[in-house]
Amino acid sequence: MLNLQSAQRANAQRGVAAVEFALVAIVFFTLLLGVAEFGRWVYTLNAASEATRFGARVAVVCDKNDPDIKARMRTFLPQAADGNIVISYSPTDCTVSSCQSVTVSLSGVSIGGLAWFLPSALPIPPFAHTLPRESMLSAIDSDSNPLCN
Questions:
Q1: DSSP state letter for 120
Q2: Sequence ranges of the domains in the chain
Q3: Which letter does DSSP use for residue 91 in this model?
Q4: 87 CB contacts (<8 Å, ≥6 apart)?
Q5: How open is the CA angle 73-78-82, to the nearest 5 degrees?
Q6: pTM for the whole structure
Q7: pLDDT exceeding 90 applies to what percent of the chain?
């Protein structure tokens, strides 16, 4: 009789570990996926900051309104479209010799969310970087600037 009762108790406990694992695994994997998604978002923030900094650097040493500036920025942040990038020279309508600074702005960019519990697109805040004018010429005394090529 004793063996029958302990066998019944063992049968009653069968599957409890699987149910407990399922409950804990849902929370654990949701947290793990959230941490990975947050890391990807922070990486993209860093890439956006670096793209604006690099875009400003290229804008102050290469030709004014060089179309390659935006293309070079997209090497850091492929999600950025031409409409998301604004290059402004100060003062407005300045020439190569009269410009004082260049500001490169990035806004309206978002990355697609991979996690089911997060929104479909995570927004990236706007970034801007301003640098004082340098040469703004892709070639000086027939020596081409390697950054502009």
A1: S
A2: 2-148
A3: S
A4: 55, 59, 65, 69, 70, 102, 103, 104, 105
A5: 60
A6: 0.77
A7: 36
